[in-house]
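Morning run. Coffee first, then this:
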Amino acid sequence: MSGQQRIALFIDGANLYATTKTLGFDIDYKRLLKEFQGRGTLLRAFYYTALVEDQEYSSIRPLIDWLDYNGYRVVTKPTKEFVDSAGRRKVKGNMDIELAIDALELAPYIDHMVLFSGDGDFRSLVEAVQRRGVRVSVVSTVTTQPPMVADELRRQADEFLDLAQLASRIGRDPSDRPQRAPGEGGGERQERPRQQQPRNGALESRYGIRQQQQDDDFDV
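And here it is:
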């Protein structure tokens, strides 16, 4: 790859989390950023996720705060709650439109788009970005059964990168997660700092810079 290419990362947070969970490792977002900074000029790194606004404590908030302060553009929106036909509570949090708009707007200014998602709904987006002269790589995996990437998305991409092969460069073992002390964070409301930047070392040590699983089922 050329060291002069302009790169943008587009991370479907829920999809990436589900994929790495299946593969059995966590993303180290600091290492991920460095990996692609070494492949060219990294213009933007977007991270998309829906948030449950009415929760007293959101386990994903520490990750969002860390990403915000450490080179990522975090795009969020509130989830929508509904009850399905079986009477089960569901939480819908789809960020496809937000990701697609950002990708199309940025396309004239980049040479290489890296999409972290296996969602087949993005095939048309990939095709549209390619028509604008942008090379598109899709990051997911085919090592699971069934594969986590839709076949039509993989076929459309200029390059497919398997997360299983990237794990040694951008991952961390789940056993490395710091353990919380008994009662730590139990139901206490965690307010996001507004004026003062959090201490990065504390977030990295406590949370491992990883997305934590939500308690609800998500329609992604």
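The CA atoms of residues 101 and 125 lie 9 Å apart. Good start to the day.
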